[in-house]
Design a protein that fits this description.
Glycosyltransferase; disordered N terminus; two-stranded antiparallel ribbon; elongated; 32 helices; 2 strands
């Protein structure tokens, strides 16, 4: 009896399997015919078979496609899912179903939406006919559906220029991820994006920084085609209390500048000045002391976070030397830090004054460790901060050695350290040409780096190299470096020209040539004033060199201390004509306005572009502070050498 039951059960199971087509598969022709049946269950069974044997049924795509497209809207969820699954497996061969699949992205069932999404991704290079369906879906009430449509478009190559006006509307979507994906689509339309340039300019106001970055890149790529939206970009320079929007607009304007008329360039320069030089400024004296008193805020987070091409040691050495130099120079103006030189001398020599209680550490307690590591290295410096650090360190030691409070032992140690630093600078200058061509060292020995090194340590060979930097036909077109990989236009050279002519002027012995360099220096300062708004407009942006003049975000803070110092030196050391005095006073006032315009509500300077220069506040604040010092005669009742700012008196 038991055997009979088992046999009957097996027979019934065999019959079921046969009906399902598992033991005996139906032919393609049979299944296709059943797929067209008016009976819902027969059609569904056929759909499941095709789904399971999709590759086998590719030969019948043309015959099946009308039914498949229709079945994407079938009331039965299983039918819609199997249909989507078939199309997903067929990939780009099923491209005729793309418009219907886009509509299916809004299906009420998540699994159906998933297979539709997969099918569209598999035919990503064939979505142009479905663009109207995509743009319709971008208006859907559900964010997830809009986002899915935008993501698929962003990953595809749909040649979407024909629907740019509809895509532009999506740039105002409430979801930043939708906007970002739409921007990726627009980016692929290349020059066609000029059609919606006004919408892109408006999108520079996007609250999301990543989106603003993509928008600016799209606009920059359009170059001269942006001339038509010049008025729109100018309006963004007036955007209130949003330096990021102004910065993005200024970045695009910098790129299209070569394509503007002379009149439009003049308008641009005028509007940049209005945008970045503020009419209401903080008090200079309190600002200077606030920078010093709040030093911990720009010290702690930056010393161990080196920028690209920099090591932690050389970066720490440069920033701590620079920070300490500013604090020592600011001390005569700020009673709260009047003992800073004593603390730094203690840290550098590791020696206490026995007549006093044990001194606390300065904010630069690691400086002697960084200095020891950098000054023990031989050969070509590892990076540019190693060079700049030696400059700042030598200037710092010279300033501390002026103090009467040093013990004999401290003075001896600091003199020895200063001699070692100068020897290192001399060796660096001697191999500066070789260093320029050394790979993977960043901007190791530019004409700026050579000039600032020579201002600290005059060296004949270095001056002979530096004198080759200006263009023989135009002394205000100055090469970025001996490699000449950055264009040397007058506007692009305006920042570096000041320290270069300051170095040549200060160290020239021939009276006639010295007068020539003095005149060049005054003219270089006038150029600096002329292009000051442009330099300031670059500070907060990302990227490095930009536009026909190759301006960079780091040009301003690295050079402005030498500009204010140069003015003070000329007033102190030269018999100036009334005309020269008037010129220098005009530059001085403009630099003061520019510097104080960059002070934020927290009392610190605006940092350089945070996307590329995350540690920039570590040097922008002391560099900006050193630039303020030569302007700060009103802040001190006595004349002192600190008023020469970043440099020391001859």
């Amino acid at each position: 009896m038991k055997k009979r039951v088992v046999f009957i059960g097996a027979l019934l199971l065999f019959s079921f399997w046969s009906q399902q087509g598992i033991l005996q598969e139906k032919t393609v022709e049979q299944v296709v015919e059943e797929f067209k049946s008016s009976d819902p269950e027969t059609r569904l069974a056929a759909a499941r078979t095709i789904s399971r044997r999709a590759q086998e049924f590719e030969i019948a795509i043309e015959d099946l496609m009308p039914e498949l497209i229709k079945n994407l809207k079938d009331p039965n969820q299983s039918m819609r899912w199997n249909t989507g699954n078939i199309l997903e497996q067929w990939g780009e061969k099923a491209k005729d179903a793309a418009p219907a699949l886009v509509d299916t992205l809004a299906d009420e069932d998540i699994y159906v939406r998933s297979v539709a999404s997969g099918a569209l991704r598999n035919m990503k290079d064939h979505l142009k006919p479905a663009l109207p369906n995509f743009t319709k879906l971008l208006n859907h009430s559900e964010t997830d559906i809009r986002l899915k449509a935008a993501q698929i478009l962003a990953q595809a190559e749909p040649d979407a220029h024909e629907v740019l006006p509809q895509l532009a509307k999506a740039l105002k979507d409430e979801d930043p991820h939708v906007r970002w994906n739409i921007l990726q689509v627009i980016k692929k339309t290349n020059d066609y994006a000029a059609i919606i340039a006004p919408d892109l300019v408006e999108a520079l106001k996007d609250e999301d920084s990543n989106n603003r970055m993509v928008v600016s890149h799209i606009l920059i790529a359009l170059k001269e085609k942006n001339k038509n939206v010049f008025p729109n970009l100018i309006e963004l320079l007036k955007y209130p209390d949003n330096s990021n929007t102004r910065t993005r607009a200024a970045k695009v304007l910098e790129e299209i500048r070569p394509h503007l008329s002379k009149e439009d360039r003049e308008v641009l320069d005028s509007e940049l000045k209005k945008a970045f030089l503020k009419p209401e400024l903080p008090d200079l004296c309190s600002t200077l002391c606030s920078l010093a008193q709040n030093s911990q805020r720009w010290i702690e987070e930056n010393f161990n976070n080196p920028e690209t091409h920099s090591t932690e040691t050389s970066w720490g050495f440069a920033l701590q030397s620079l920070g300490a130099l500013f604090m020592v120079k600011a001390a005569p103006f700020c009673k709260e830090i009047k003992d800073i030189s004593t603390l730094i001398a203690h840290d550098l020599t590791q020696e206490s004054d026995p007549s006093r209680c044990e001194l606390p550490s300065s904010p630069f307690s690691k400086l002697h460790i960084f200095a020891s590591d950098v000054l023990s290295a031989t050969g070509i410096p590892v990076d540019s901060p190693a060079v700049y650090g030696k400059q700042f360190y030598a200037l710092l030691l010279q300033e501390i050695l002026k103090k009467d409070s040093l013990t004999d032992s401290q003075r001896e140690k600091l003199k020895k350290e200063l001699t070692t630093t100068h020897l290192h600078l001399e060796r660096n200058i001697q191999i500066s040409k070789e260093a320029i061509s050394t790979p993977n060292r960043g901007s190791l020995f530019t004409s700026y780096a050579l000039a600032t090194s020579l201002l600290v340590h005059p060296e004949e060979k270095g001056f002979n190299i530096l004198k080759q930097s200006p263009d023989p036909d135009n002394p205000f077109q100055i090469a970025y470096s001996a490699g000449g990989f950055i264009k040397n236009t007058v506007r692009g050279s305006a920042a570096r020209a000041v320290p270069i002519y300051l170095a040549l002027y200060r160290n020239e012995k021939d009276p006639e040539q010295k007068t020539t360099y003095k005149n060049y220096l005054i003219k270089a300062l006038e150029n600096y004033k002329k292009y000051l708004p442009s330099l300031m407009a670059q500070i907060k942006r990302d990227d490095t060199h930009l536009g026909e003049d190759s301006l960079a975000p780091y040009y301003f803070f690295s050079t402005v201390p030498y500009a204010t110092s140069a003015i003070e030196f000329l007033f102190e050391k030269e018999e100036l004509s009334d005309e020269e005095k008037e010129k220098l006073n005009t530059v001085k006032q403009e630099l003061k306005t520019g510097l104080l315009s960059l002070i934020q509500k927290n009392g610190l300077f605006e940092a350089q572009g945070e996307e590329l220069y995350p540690s920039s506040s570590g040097y922008t604040n002391p560099l900006g502070g050193l630039a303020l010092i030569p302007l700060a005669q009103e802040c001190s009742q006595e004349k002192n050498s600190a008023l020469f700012g970043i440099l020391t008196e001859d």
